[in-house]
Amino acid sequence: MLQCFETSCLFNNPPFFLKKNLICLFISGFFKQLQVYTEEFRSWPLFKLWIGPLPVMVLYHPECVEVILSSSKHIEKSYLYKFLHPWLGTGLLTSTGDKWRSRRKMITPTFHFSILTDFLDVMNEQGGILLEKLEKHVDKEPFDVFLDITLCALDIICETAMGKNIGAQENKDSEYVRAIYRMSDLIQQRQKSPWLWPNLVYMLFKEGREHERNLKILHNFTDTVIAEKVAELENSKQMKRDTDGNCEESGSKKRKAFLDMLLSATDDGGNKLSYRDIREEVDTFMFEGHDTTAAALNWALYLLGHNPEAQKKVHRELDEVFGDTERPVTVDDLKKLRYLECVVKEALRLFPSVPLFARALREDCCIGGYQVPKGTNVLVITYALHRDPEIFPDPEEFRPERFFPENCKGRHPYVYVPFSAGPRNCIGQRFAQMEEKTLLALILRRFWVDSCQKPEELGITGDLILRPSNGIWIKLKRRPHAGSE
C-alpha cells in the first residue's frame, strides 16, 4: 500500500507523525492535499511525505526555501523530472552540474534586453489576432477564455523560439498543437502514478504507447524546423559570399529567433551546440514558454474581473499612456505601466504558474533546524509560500499595492519566487513578464472584463502548471473611449 507520510521531524528526529492513505490523496487530488497540509502545518518548519517509494521533504517557509534555492550546490532536479527527459533531454530545465553551468552561460546572452525588444513585435502581432477573436464575444454570453489565451501564447513562443509561425490561433487542431498539450498531460499523470514509473511497465499501458506517438510528432517537428533554419543560414552565407559582402540583403531586417542564436552560440572552448543539444533547448522553451505565461495571463484576467476597482486603476493607467489609440505596445510603454506590473506580480503571488518544484540534495544540509541527508528530494510549494500571512496579511485578498516599492522594503527575498530564485532561477522571466504586460495592455485597452466564477467554482489543479480545471469564464464589454470613465 502506498502511503502519504507527514511529520515535522526527519528520519531520526522522532516526535510528530500523521498518516493518510494515498488512495484518499488521489481521490481528493494531490495538489489539494498539499494545500490542506501546508495550511494545517503552517507553524511547522517542514514535513515529509511519501510519493510511492520516494520520500519528499516539503518546504513552504522563506527561511527554509532560501537554504535550497540560494545554494550553488543543490541545483540537481528531483527524480520526478526524469519523466521530462524523453521529450526535453537534459536541456536547461533538466540538466545539472557542469552541463547545466556551461549551457546556462551559453544561453544567457540570448536573453539580452535588446533581443527581447525584437520579440515585442511578435507579441503585438499575435495579440492583435487574439483581440479579433475576443471581439466576437463582446456583449454576449460568458465564455471560457483559457484556450484563446493559451493558443496566442503558443503562437508567440513558436515564432520567438523557432522563427516558425504555426498559426495555432487559427488552427487549434493541428497535429503539433494537440501533441504538445497531450504530452504535458501524460507527463504530469505519470509523475503522480508510481506504478507507471518503470519504462517497461509504462509501455504496457496505452498511455505509454500514446507517449511514444506524441514524442515522435514533437521531435519530428523540431528536427524539421532546425534543418530548415540551418539551410536558410547556409543560403544566407552563400548569398553574402556571392556578393562579396558589398551589398546588404534587400528588404527589411529579418527577425531573429531563439533558434538562430542557438545555432551560433559557443562555449568557452569555442564549441558549438550539436543538433541534439539545440533540440533539447528548443523543446525546453516550447514546454516552459507558453503554458506558464498563458496561465498567468488567465489568472490576471480572472482577478481583475473580480476586482473592478483594481481594473479601473489599470484602465486609467492605460489611458494615460496610450490615450484612445490602438497603436502597438512599445518598450517605453511597458516601463510606464507600473500599476499593471503590480497586478501581474500579485496575480503570480496568488496563482503562481509553477505551484511547486523539486530538487535533490547533493549533500547533507540543515533546513529549519533539522539535518536532512544527501539524496533527499525536496519539494518547494510556491503556492503556500506566497500565502504566508505574516508577510502577506489577508493572503487570499488580491492587492496589487503589496508590490509598490515602498511596500516591498524589508520583505524576505525568498517569500515570493514565481520564477524560482538563486542561481537556478528562470532564465526566461523577463520574456514572460514582457509578454504578460503586453497582452494584458492590448486586451484591457479595448475591453472591460467581468469574471463569472466564484473561487470555489474554478477547480484549481496543480499539475505541471497551476490551472483551473473548469476554465476561466468571463464576459466582455467594449470600453468607452479612453478617459471617459
Automatic annotation (TrEMBL):
Entry-linked Pfam families: p450
InterPro entries attached to this UniProt entry: Cyt_P450, Cyt_P450_CS, Cyt_P450_E_grp-I, Cyt_P450_sf, Cytochrome_P450_Monoox
Keyword match Iron: yes
Cofactors (names): heme
Amino acids binding heme: 426
Entry's Gene Ontology molecular function annotations: heme binding; iron ion binding; monooxygenase activity; oxidoreductase activity, acting on paired donors, with incorporation or reduction of molecular oxygen
SUPFAM superfamilies per UniProt: Cytochrome P450
Source taxon at top rank: Eukaryota
Keywords for this protein: Heme, Iron, Metal-binding, Monooxygenase, Oxidoreductase
Keyword Cytoplasm among UniProt keywords: no
Protein family membership: Belongs to the cytochrome P450 family.
Protein name from the UniProt record: Cytochrome P450 family 4 subfamily V member 2
Organism: Falco tinnunculus
